[in-house]
Amino acid sequence: MKLLVQINGQAGELLLEEGAGDAWRFEYTAGERAAAGEASVIEVEPGIYSVLWDGRSYEAKVLWDGGQGIVDVGPEHFVVEAADPREIDARQAEGKRGSRQELKASMPGKVVRVLVEEQQEVAAGQGIVVVEAMKMQNEMRVARAGRVTSIRVKSGDAVTAGEALAVIE
Q1: Spatial separation of the C-alpha atoms in residues 129 and 166, rounded to whole Å
Q2: What gap in Å lies between CA 142 and CA 115, rounded to an integer?
Q3: How many domains, in total, are found in the chain?
Q4: Are the C-beta atoms of 28 and 34 separated by less than 8 Å?
Q5: pLDDT tens column, 85-121
Q6: Final residue of a domain: which of 54, 83, 112?
């Protein structure tokens, strides 16, 4: 399975292949950085994984909602977004047909900032709303260019996962 990922804002590509038992082969590239290998991954509790990679043991705590999540490995903290390129291609094709896009919160949190105004033109990938979840600020971005027809939240609002933040046409 090939995924397009962003880890702490840095875009990359991740190739995952399930092996025998709990083994996973992976290849990760992000610009000049690359890593590859095989790791044993076992979910020991909901959202907590035991990972054995390159002779070292790690505990990963994962809070995942849709294509976005937060991963803590020891003292390291990662904000991760992942998408199947086939889904992105389908969304982009849909966007070219001029459909309405509803930007939704990917996880519960608090609106920190609204970055645009109603009737403003926006570019694909532009940030619209900043939501704070688990002390990390996440910029919610639009998948395609368009015009903001409705902003449904304001700074200070609490939002739930899946709640509409704005509408783009």
Answers
A1: 8
A2: 12
A3: 2
A4: yes
A5: 776 544 444 444 456 888 888 778 899 999 999 999 9
A6: 83
